[in-house]
Amino acid sequence: MKVAGKVAVVTGGGGGIGGAIAQALAAEGARVVVADLDAATAQAVADKINADHPGSAVAAGGDVSGTEVIRGLIELAEKGFGPVDMYFANAGITGAPGLDADDAAWDLSLDVNLRSHIRAAQLLVPGWVERGDGYFVSTASAAGLLTQIGGATYAVTKHAAVGFAEWLSVTYGDQGVKVSCLCPQGVNTKLLFPDEGADDGLSATAMKAVTEAGDVLEPAQVAADVLAAIDDERFLILPHPKVLDMYRHKGADYDRWLRGMRRYQASLQGS
């Protein structure tokens, strides 16, 4: 799909990967609704886009895991630009690290990392099927193909996000609905490197696992990879190509892979 002239909604768009995707879309001629829990950061990204590409972006704040907030984003896009052609389910949280996570922590991670994708698809996919065209981009993680040492809620919900994206593609791919799933490793965002004093980043072990696993990419590079995949209508987006090799090793001998991950975890913990 060519993005020029398309109408897109990008959640988690106030910075990081989402902000970079929103800017990349506008640079290619798309019109974008930039959404984020932090309305000020969403507005800052929209203002930057409009400075370079006047009239190409609007901003919205809100909890993008909620159905009514998502519905509001769609209506905002329709009012300002026209029907939504593309939805980037990019908002995400790291969540609680281990078995001590309570039900509320699990529900929060499930809402943001998974149910937000489901709820957006419920609102958009029927119309896309009727039109015979639409594009859903799910931001998951390499953790959704492999796992996340030191991050139980993150690993599980990102696996679920990959599974939902697969299901969407299988179910609606022959009815005009395109689906891509972004699965990066380390990216230079606040999710990996939170502001000082913030309590929403990865655990120390999880951060070490990510940063030692390979290169930490800049969001602009990831956004470029996303747009290239959309142009090719390719499902799996791997900014870190070696993730595919690791995924193949996992599938080829699951028990060996699990043993290797346990050894790697022990090394990270200094055991």
From TrEMBL:
Superkingdom as given in the UniProt entry: Bacteria
GO molecular-function terms, A-Z: oxidoreductase activity
Enzyme Commission no: 1.-.-.-
The keyword Transmembrane is assigned to this record: no
PROSITE patterns: ADH_SHORT (PS00061)
Gene3D superfamilies documented for this protein: NAD(P)-binding Rossmann-like Domain (3.40.50.720)
Keywords assigned by UniProt, alphabetized: Oxidoreductase
Keyword match Transport: no
Pfam families, A to Z: adh_short
Enzyme class, spelled out: oxidoreductase
Classification via SUPFAM superfamilies: NAD(P)-binding Rossmann-fold domains
Family the UniProt entry places it in: Belongs to the short-chain dehydrogenases/reductases (SDR) family.
Protein name per its UniProtKB record: SDR family oxidoreductase
Organism annotation: Rhodococcus gannanensis
